[in-house]
Every structure is written in C-alpha cells, then in structure tokens.
Amino acid sequence: MLMISTGNKAIAAAVKQARPSVVAAYPITPQTEIIEQIASYVANGEVETEYIPVESEHSAMAACIGASVTGVRTFTATSSHGLLYMHEMLHWAAGARLPIVMANVNRAVGPGWNTWAEHTDAFSQRDTGWLQVFVGTVQEAYDATLMAFRIAEDERVLLPVMVNLDGFTLSHIMQSLETVDLGDFIPPTRLPYAIDVKNPMGYGPMTGPDDYFRFRWDIERSMRDARDVIRETEEEFARRFGRKYGPAEEYLCEDAEVVVVSMGTLGKEAEVAVDLLRKEGVKAGSMRLRWFRPFPDLDLKGREVVVIDRDYSFGFGGVVAASLKAKTGIECYNVIAGLGGQEVTYDDIADFVRNRRIGEEMWFGVSE
Amino acid sequence: MSEIPKEEYITTCTAACAGCSSSLSLRYVLKAAGPDTVLVVPACCTSVIQGMYPNTSFNVPVYNIAFAAAAACASGMSKAFKSAGKKTNVIVYAGDGGTVDIGIQALSGAFERGTNFLYICYDNEAYGNTGMQRSGATPLGALTTTTPAGKTETKKDLDQIVAAHNPPYMATACSAYPLDLYKKVKKALSIEGPKFIHILAPCPPGWRYNSDKTIEIGKLAVKTGSWVLYEREYGKLTVSGPSRTALKKPHPIEEYIRAQGRFKKATPEIVAELQQSIEKNLARIKKEEEGIC
Ligand SMILES: Cc1ncc(C[n+]2csc(CCOP(=O)(O)OP(=O)(O)O)c2C)c(N)n1
Ligand code: SF4
C-alpha cells in the first residue's frame, strides 16, 4: 500500500506487522510518536500486543528483557537520554542473547538541552553488543525495522538490534511509504533457551573467568555471523519486495576519485552534493554507511575520502572517521557537522569536498 | 507442618551462609508456589545462594536481572506469559536494598500498573551481597560497614509505601514462622494482580549472632513487636496469630537487640527511641485492625 508517512509512523507500521507480543516503552522527544502510534494500534485492537507503559527507560528495557526471555517477540523505542538511561540494560539484553528490537531516534545529548539529530547517543552504546543500523529515508525506516526482527531472531545471531533514524529530519518529515504484504518473511520467534518451567535453568548466574570469556567470544562470533544473516535477509527482502539494501548505500562510487562517507539523512544530502560536483567535473561519489555494528568492510582504496561525522568522541575524533581509519588504514578529511541538528545543506557538503584537506579535522561553522 | 509439601526446590550447591534465614524463607516460598514458577532475582544474596554457572541450586527457572530492574523485568515476563496464555507464577525475590533503595522506582511502577506478580522482599536490613553496608531498611543504631558508629536514621517504612499503592494483597512474614509464611504465599498467588510479602530475614554475619540462633532471633523480633506479622487484603488489615501476644504485651526491645552484635553501640537513648517507635507502630496497627483510622 502506498501512503505518506513520517519516519516514526513508518516504524510503528512495521512493528504492527511484525506483531510483537510485548511492547514496553517510555516517551521521549522525538521518539514519542512511535509509541503513541503503537499504543493506539493496541487500543484499537489492530494488533494483539501487551503494551506496558513503564515508568522509565531502564524499566522499559528491563520489561523487554523479562518478556523476551520467555521466548516472545518484543519491541521498544527511545532516544538520547532515554537510551543512555538504558545503558546498563542494553549490555544485559545483548549479554543474555535476547533478540529485542528497538528504534532509537537519534538526538543530541544534554546539557545544552537539544532535541535535534546527532549520532553520539547511539555511538556511545556501540560496545554493548547491539547490532546497529542507520536509515536515511522513511521507506528505509520501515524496511529496516521489518528486517531487524528477522535478523535479531535468527539463531545464528540472537542479539538485539537498534534501528537508528535521525530525530526530526527523518522522524517527523513526511515521505512516501510503500508497505509490503509481509507473508512469511518474519518467521515465528524461536528462542532455543526460552524460560520453561518444565526444564528449569538458571539464567544469568555468576560465571567464572573461563565461562565468561567464552560467552563474550560467542557474542563476537555471532556478530561476525550476523554479516551473512544481514546480507541474506537484505537479498531476500529485495527478491520479495523489490527494494535493495547493503552494508552501505553507494551512489556513483564506481569511478569516483573522491568519496563522501556519512550516515543517516546527511547521506541522502550527500547524494545531491555529488550530482552538483559531477556537473562541475569533479568525480565524486557518496557512500552512506548503513550498518555500524557489525562494522562493514568498505572498499575505498585509491580514493580520497571525506567523512562527515554527526558525532564526536571528545579528545579523540569523529567516530566514523576513526572507525574507518582503524579498519582500512585510510586517512580522510574529517568534517564534524550537524551536531544538535545544525543545518548542513548539499551546498555545504559540496564545499567540504571542494576544500578537502586530507588528514585534517574540521568542525563545520566553528573551526573553518 | 504436615500441609507443607515435601518437594524441595532448593537443592545442593547453595552458597548461602550457615543459618541464612533468607534461603530458609525462599525454601518455603517455593514449596508454596510449586514448580510452575519463575523466580526473578536482582543482584543480592539470592544470586549467590543460587550457585555458580553451570550449576544452579534451584529447581525452578531463575532469571537474574540487574539491581534496579527486578519489578520491571517481572512486568515484562508476566505480560509475556499472559500473551502466551500461561498461568506461570512470576515471583520477584529481592533484598531490601534492591527494594527500598535502588529498585523502588521499578517496584512502584509495577504496582501502579497492576502487574500480575508476587514481589517478595526478604529484609536482612543491609546489603549482604557486598559485605553488609547500610540500606534504607537498616534500623536506627545498627552497625554496618558504612555506619560503623551505628545508623543515625530510622528504618524506611517500606510497607506503608507499598500500602499506598493499594495492592489487593500484602503481608509481612518471618522465616521463624514458616507455616504462616507458607500460607501467605499460597494466598497471595491465588489472587490476581500485584502482591507483596515483606519477610524479615535475620542474617548471622550481618546481625552478628551465631548461626544456630536464626530462629530464636526471628521469634524475638516478633515477640518484642519489632516485627509485626499481618496481612492486608484489599486494604483490610488482620494481625497474624504469632503477633497477637506482642500486640497485647510486647517483650522489651532489649531482649531482641542484646542478642545481636550489630546493636552493641546503641546508647540508652537509641534503645528508648527504638522502644517508642515499636509502641507507636503497635498502637497504629491495633487501631487500624479495629477500624479506627
Ligand atoms: C547498579 C548497581 N550498583 C551496585 C551493585 C552492587 N550490588 C550488588 S548486590 C548489592 C546489595 C544488595 O543488597 P540487598 O538488596 O539488601 O540484598 P542482600 O545482598 O542483602 O541479599 C549491591 C550494592 C549492582 N549490582 N548494581
Ligand atoms: S549474608 Fe545474610 S542474607 Fe546473605 S547469604 Fe549470608 S546469611 Fe543469608
């Protein structure tokens, strides 16, 4: 069905189709619309989900954990401070191998109270063991949420998945959305070690160093396996529903001499900048990173790279640029831009490319 | 005692201290609840009593959750069982620290939402797991590792806080009166909605008495009126049998506190204050039971 939707409502629509048994959530701007929409689906009887209006984000994730361990499908959504307040529980969900799906509407972290887009909230959770995908359009928010349930619940993965979308610039803008007839794309949840009173076990007990170490390695092994599961899922999604996704969305990259690497909505803006630059004779391309965990292998050899980071790791550098350098050894021009929702147009991005100084860092609008 | 089933749900490998009344209580709780039960346990002594991976000393599934999160986790679990059409008992077994301090937000939320579960706080009046620091439930004058001169504040009144949420059933209990505890758990689990049982759990290393004295100490708590056994069903309070005598004529508090090393620095003023607060509490309970509020 074709319709017009916000990013938030697209996520709620996908959740409705995935039919989780339990949704526990706590409101925070700009995520609120997602959980309000789900609450109204539940109230109208459009979906058979137990909706738990918890008293905090820590409890939201704890409730999802408690539900998920019984083997049912669960979902929650949050943003910024809500995500940070969940931090302990995020480790718990991944460590307990629970396939919880969560939408995180990326938002700056205070103080400097600010509800606009920034990726620092999600990146500060990068070592929790959650898979993280970043979307660039309303359609992709919907598609990625559907795929998230399937990826998380795959027996080779059994890790939670965070679907990230930019606050306001995606959560609240309207774009066209084509919903799919899901069919059997998401199979019923099967948790191999769901709580079963007929087979009592201890979950999450004290563990000695050797067992603990093995459990950590097992998470990493599943993160590695997740690359295949993600690829297979995205391929099957393309076969069934005609929309193709990959670890990064490449735009005019084949012959590009300079590539802009970015995430979320800035990645879509970068594609327009590339069109502009091509008209000027600059062989530019755009690579929008979709998966941040597991971090994909990107082919950037032999090109100049401009990385736009909508985040910062203080005392170190942009997180995406640093990750790229660590993975590929590639030096880039690292532009820090868009923090707290700062406006960044395609003209600005074209300027970043025109004025690139490989090996340097620049804070847009502050340190030029 | 004949009505208490013989089945054991706490088996070998438990790492509890000798004379631990919290594990004794849990033994009766599980006997009353039966095998169709899941325990939700936050960080506390119970996670130690459970034993170490890959072993478990319990015969029912145990879900370990972070310190602040037990009641919220149980909310999710309870709803999940409901959605799957299962009648499984969801029981939180949490210490006083995980209840009156860090976990109180989740507790309050779950009770306000009407979660169908039984929340049990076993109250050893300190943080046992981390080596006996004070909690909000530590009584006035008691020594802990963070109140080496004796606690200067009074015990937080958890039962009044829970009562303010109007749960359909709440009760107090003590491991020294296992049949009373057993019946209360049975009754609680027969009622739909949020239930609460507060168990006084004497703790030999924490309270500084010999481990063979656990039952005696529990009985002294009840006889002196320091701990009053009662039930509150749909708001109506009924004092339980073992506390009837104390309600009429409590033994002096000295009998209880002199039996424990943790009160050895309690001054006569503190003892008098403890005695006064017992009398006030007993008078309040008496009035409430008689319906004079
Ligand atoms: C967020 C957090 N802070 C601190 C701890 C450390 N910790 C584990 S158990 C515990 C005390 C538990 O005390 P209580 O709830 O009274 O139970 P008891 O150990 O006495 O059985 C503490 C402080 C923790 N696990 N998590
Ligand atoms: S410290 Fe106290 S409550 Fe904890 S196991 Fe030992 S006796 Fe039991």
UniProtKB/TrEMBL annotation, chain A:
<comment type="subunit">
    <text>Heterotetramer of one alpha, one beta, one delta and one gamma chain.</text>
</comment>
<keyword id="KW-0560">Oxidoreductase</keyword>
<dbReference type="GO" id="GO:0006979">
    <property type="term" value="P:response to oxidative stress"/>
</dbReference>
<feature type="domain" description="Pyruvate:ferredoxin oxidoreductase core">
    <location>
        <begin position="256"/>
        <end position="349"/>
    </location>
</feature>
<keyword id="KW-0670">Pyruvate</keyword>
<dbReference type="Pfam" id="PF01855">
    <property type="entry name" value="POR_N"/>
</dbReference>
<protein>
    <submittedName>
        <fullName>Pyruvate ferredoxin oxidoreductase</fullName>
    </submittedName>
</protein>
<dbReference type="InterPro" id="IPR009014">
    <property type="entry name" value="Transketo_C/PFOR_II"/>
</dbReference>
<dbReference type="InterPro" id="IPR002880">
    <property type="entry name" value="Pyrv_Fd/Flavodoxin_OxRdtase_N"/>
</dbReference>
<dbReference type="InterPro" id="IPR050722">
    <property type="entry name" value="Pyruvate:ferred/Flavod_OxRd"/>
</dbReference>
<dbReference type="GO" id="GO:0044272">
    <property type="term" value="P:sulfur compound biosynthetic process"/>
</dbReference>
<dbReference type="Pfam" id="PF17147">
    <property type="entry name" value="PFOR_II"/>
</dbReference>
<dbReference type="GO" id="GO:0016491">
    <property type="term" value="F:oxidoreductase activity"/>
</dbReference>
<dbReference type="GO" id="GO:0006082">
    <property type="term" value="P:organic acid metabolic process"/>
</dbReference>
<dbReference type="InterPro" id="IPR029061">
    <property type="entry name" value="THDP-binding"/>
</dbReference>
<feature type="domain" description="Pyruvate flavodoxin/ferredoxin oxidoreductase pyrimidine binding">
    <location>
        <begin position="14"/>
        <end position="234"/>
    </location>
</feature>
<dbReference type="InterPro" id="IPR033412">
    <property type="entry name" value="PFOR_II"/>
</dbReference>
UniProtKB/TrEMBL annotation, chain B:
<dbReference type="Pfam" id="PF02775">
    <property type="entry name" value="TPP_enzyme_C"/>
</dbReference>
<protein>
    <submittedName>
        <fullName>Pyruvate synthase subunit beta</fullName>
    </submittedName>
</protein>
<dbReference type="GO" id="GO:0006082">
    <property type="term" value="P:organic acid metabolic process"/>
</dbReference>
<comment type="subunit">
    <text>Heterotetramer of one alpha, one beta, one delta and one gamma chain.</text>
</comment>
<dbReference type="InterPro" id="IPR029061">
    <property type="entry name" value="THDP-binding"/>
</dbReference>
<dbReference type="GO" id="GO:0044272">
    <property type="term" value="P:sulfur compound biosynthetic process"/>
</dbReference>
<dbReference type="InterPro" id="IPR051479">
    <property type="entry name" value="PorB-like"/>
</dbReference>
<dbReference type="GO" id="GO:0016491">
    <property type="term" value="F:oxidoreductase activity"/>
</dbReference>
<keyword id="KW-0560">Oxidoreductase</keyword>
<keyword id="KW-0670">Pyruvate</keyword>
<feature type="domain" description="Thiamine pyrophosphate enzyme TPP-binding">
    <location>
        <begin position="53"/>
        <end position="199"/>
    </location>
</feature>
<dbReference type="GO" id="GO:0030976">
    <property type="term" value="F:thiamine pyrophosphate binding"/>
</dbReference>
<dbReference type="InterPro" id="IPR011766">
    <property type="entry name" value="TPP_enzyme_TPP-bd"/>
</dbReference>
